## 1
Amino acid sequence: MTPNPLRSTTPQIAASILSADFRNLAREIDDVLRGGSDFLHLDVMDGHFVPNISFGPPIIKATRAATNAYLDAHLMIMEPARYAPAIVKAGAQNVTFHVEVVTDAAQAAREIRKVSNHVGISLNPATPVERIFPALDHVDVVLIMSVVPGFSGQSFMPEVLAKCEAVRRRLRPDQRLEIDGGINADTVRSAKSAGVDWFVAASAIFDQKDRGAAIAALRRGLE
Ligand code: DX5
Ligand code: ZN
């Protein structure tokens, strides 16, 4: 049974496989989950919404075959509703889309809800937080980008913390606030203070030799 992190109110650490060694994906997944990562974050990029191409359904399917962990898909793509069914079919439990690529965010969330148990909405650092408000009733997760999306290994942008606070105030107790980009053992603290529940990290986990120690350091930052 895949655990459901939406049910948990304790801070969750999600390892983003964008920085994994894809030659050994199953082993990398096993390493970070044994090392204490709560679930996996899957960064799907199309080369249009962001200036990078990562992976799509085949890698999500391979990830699903390697683990029963919760899979959180972050779609950095145009036309998210068009591709959501394939993402879910491949094995993702949550599908997060970007507000910048849709004209009606509430409608996009409802459309994705038809095929996905969980739905998230995300926004770039430059996007005003008010843009997501009309969709808040229709999502389970709000993902605040703390870097300009496209690449792992960038520096955390502290100016997005005010957005975290503004969203937190508007969320129901059953909704979760997630942050993505530049999260490490230091930045995780300020994000937690701003009300974040889910912390995504790629380089702070995968670029370290001892993934268990890296995740423990993040967890200490959350205490
Ligand atoms: C950025 C991706 C992130 C990325 C995070 O475009 O959405 O999930 O993998 O990488 P780090 O943790 O290295 O900033
Ligand atoms: Zn991401």
## 2
Amino acid sequence: MSIYQNIEVENNQGLFWLTLNRPDVRNALDATMLQEIDQAVTEAEEDENVKVIIFRGAGGKSFAAGADIKQLKEREPLEALVPGMQGLYKKIEDCSKATIAVVEGYALGGGCELALACDIRVATDNAKLGLPELNLGIIPGAGGTQRLSRIVGKGHALDMILTGKIVKGDDAYRMGLVQYYVTQEELDEQIDSITEKIVQKGPVAIKLAKHAIHHGYDLSGEAAMWIEKLSQAVVFGTEDKQEGTSAFLEKRKPDFKNR
Ligand code: COA
């Protein structure tokens, strides 16, 4: 496993924990951290034992307080055209593993956008989420304008982005911005409960269900239904489908093999 400077990773029993680790600056995402996240996601993607990638922030006060503003200040127009943070978050959304963002404390700007790119978001009672980029004279540029409106609807997205308001965990849950809302004490149990369910599933089915949802979402209904149908045709040909259906009929737990 690689050694990292601004993140920590732990790969254990199908779970790949990726901890953003600059707590003194509320886990602000600098260039090194982004490059390391990219490398770690590749590492997780290439390990067929990994089923879930869990993103979290060190220190309990912040998931991530956004792009590193010191570095942001120096950026030139053409630097916004490279894949950068937007490209990295697309890679995370497209990766074949299930992804979970654990939002304890602040998830602002690029931190919130990272959470939006994950499949499932869990917020604690000290969570505060927002896209306050307009306060800095810029706009959300790592998928935030698009993913936020798709997740919570245009009205909430426009309200949050134009006012820069920070939404607390319980309000985020009510808006559908996060899927789980728990106290900090309940967090570990909640993560265990979600990941336990996912790791029991077959990896091919996880991958194709994710792709059918993410890639079908912006297509016409007809094209999206075809993506679903073709994905189902692929899983119908797998040993895992035989195993899953046999296990049910034989009243035992399936042992999926990723083929
Ligand atoms: N980039 C660089 N440094 C950051 C940062 C960021 N996005 N967010 C926080 N920091 C630094 C602060 O400058 C401060 O550094 P210092 O100790 O050298 O002064 C340190 O982290 C702690 O931040 P502080 O503001 O004192 O903590 P807080 O708990 O009172 O407030 C936040 C936390 C997250 C609300 C506040 O730091 C903040 O608003 N950060 C910027 C959020 C933002 O605009 N993100 C979008 C970026 S595009």
## 3
Amino acid sequence: MSIRTLDDLLAEGVSGRRVLVRADLNVPLDKQTGAITDDGRIRAVLPTLGALVEAGAKVIVCSHLGRPKGAPDPQFSLGPVAGRLGELLGAPVHFATDTVGESARATVADLADGQVALLENLRFNAGETSKDEAERGAFADQLAAFGDAYVDDAFGAVHRKHASVFDVPARLPHVAGRLVLREVEVLSKLTGAPERPYVVVLGGSKVSDKLAVIEALLPTVDRLLIGGGMCFTFLKAQGLEVGTSLLEKDMVDTCRNLLERADGKIMLPVDVVVADAFAPDAAHDTVRVDGIPSHRLGLDVGPETVAGFSAALSQAKTIFWNGPMGVFEMPAFAAGTRGIAEAITKADAFSVVGGGDSAAAVRALGLDESSFGHISTGGGASLEYLEGKTLPGIAALEN
Ligand code: 3PG
Ligand code: MG
């Protein structure tokens, strides 16, 4: 891989130079208050930003937040993120109230050496996510005008062929930031020659989101443990009734086919926690998977499943985990996710947690982050990396 790194850029000297950093500051926000509920992605770019500040660069940070539709939308403003980033850096962050407009131009022009600016949400501009090369290119031109060099530290967005990820590096000298390098280094261990047994735990709600990664992983893993909302489509494929649980009907045949080809590598839940409704205070019980009542829905895996999955994890030498086992945000349905997370920390294995949700679950459950080998900031990005897909953001750095 011929990717230049932040250290290469620092060695050239960046004092007084404008360095445009693409970060993934797409943090979860509280639906009611708009407060940042997990600042992990902000903390993850501090090593890169700190090094640039220390070296006296003018640091211009850009990011997306959520999925606004190409126009300003206050609920997706990066304003609160600028505040938090400033607290973590210990210095004010100059916030531009637009991305490439008058405020951005003035903010960048006024920046002193060693200061940090944050531009407003990239996705307030249609050019950022446009499928049209020319439209993306025009927006990339405007962004690139703010920098003398470009650093990609937005690992969570490297799978997006977006202007700030794919087109800007074609216009500026470009390097990979510390976070992107670390993520690629860790994930390449999993795609290379992982120490065995290699056990993967997948959860989350949709089989259709995970299908490609399941296909790609089946030949390489020793065991694939499936929980979360997506397990019900697999259980259905085994001929079981799943009540009103999440079910992707059009994926049942695909799941059956995967199970047939899996050579016994796939482990499914043997018991689940079923509830009357999708609500934190819903009445609930644990039942065997062959006894799910027709009017109830599964919201977590049960204790026997946790025990079985934990036994498989205790043998592992390499573990990758993506996706919660249940609705961990509701305490009544958090035990499965907690149990699996704890089993991973106890295993004598190199463990990687992939994904926004699983990483947030680790922190929300109060688990010690340092007891995992690596917590990826990328959900979709880490899965696409493991699938062996070309990631536009990485490819752009290679050129
Ligand atoms: C993520 O949260 O997975 C990344 O920030 C990418 O966001 P996106 O899925 O909206 O492109
Ligand atoms: Mg995503």
